[in-house]
Amino acid sequence: MRGIQTVEELRERCRVDEDTGCWQFGKASRSSHAPGVRVAALGGEMVSLGVAAAVLRTGERPKAGVVWHITCCTKHCANPEHRKAGTRKSQMKQASYKPTALTLAKIAATKRAKSVLTPADIAEIRASRETLHELSARFGVSPSNIGRIRLNQLWRDTAAPAASVFSWGGA
Predict the structure, then answer these.
(1) What are residue 77's DSSP bridge partners?
(2) Whole-model pTM above 0.85?
């Protein structure tokens, strides 16, 4: 049967943001149009990410008037855990929500508190001349995440931009 059958299959087709847990489906981050996906439980029908999340979590299509909208800050997030059932009104209210830099910094800090890596580990990874696979084995983290840490794509500074007069020069 054609289409996505499980939440894991959906996740595998996405780029996962380690700090927020958001899943960017395919090229959705570059497009202003909501991406569609084929869901096996619906006979391979092309549906929105919200309908896909509902089917994968509940096993059935949402009832008329019910939308599964995002609850996070990422446009077109495909993570079913970041979606909830609501109305068109609640969807539009959520869509207009724009988190502040401080809120985003707090989210990142919370995620880091649960991380297996410490700030000292991050500094060691960035300073090390070991290969990605050697560091991966030593810290128990995937080689791709080690690479992203080295490129400063993961574990960026959590301070809100221009949070104090001392950071204005770097903002």
Answers:
(1) 24
(2) no
